[in-house]
Amino acid sequence: MSKSILVVDDSPSVRQVVGLSLKNAGYQVVEAEDGMKALEALDGRRFHLIISDVNMPIMDGLSFVKQLKQKDAYRFTPVLMLTTESGDDMKQAGKAAGVKAWLVKPFKPDVLLSAVSKLA
């Protein structure tokens, strides 16, 4: 059975590139365009990994991760932040919220897949 990954990003082109990279590597992909939509996708399905942007409208990535970690079913689901944010303060905030890994855009698909294979 292939592993499921939730991709959360407000940019359709980023979701498309990430989604294609993951699908081509054999993963199942569910997409959400912001943190609120991502929370709605957490309906009991098992996700092996969540890839999220930080800067999004409605609910940003860090707020989403904090809410995610309060849900028993998803408390231990690893989160990879895929973002333009590269500052240490933001990374520390992510780590404090429960983020496992941080990848800065623009990214190379093989680097993304390498990180995904370690986390998912």
UniProtKB/TrEMBL annotation:
<dbReference type="InterPro" id="IPR001789">
    <property type="entry name" value="Sig_transdc_resp-reg_receiver"/>
</dbReference>
<dbReference type="GO" id="GO:0000160">
    <property type="term" value="P:phosphorelay signal transduction system"/>
</dbReference>
<feature type="modified residue" description="4-aspartylphosphate">
    <location>
        <position position="53"/>
    </location>
</feature>
<dbReference type="Pfam" id="PF00072">
    <property type="entry name" value="Response_reg"/>
</dbReference>
<keyword id="KW-0597">Phosphoprotein</keyword>
<protein>
    <submittedName>
        <fullName>Two-component system response regulator</fullName>
    </submittedName>
</protein>
<dbReference type="InterPro" id="IPR050595">
    <property type="entry name" value="Bact_response_regulator"/>
</dbReference>
<feature type="domain" description="Response regulatory">
    <location>
        <begin position="4"/>
        <end position="120"/>
    </location>
</feature>
<dbReference type="InterPro" id="IPR011006">
    <property type="entry name" value="CheY-like_superfamily"/>
</dbReference>
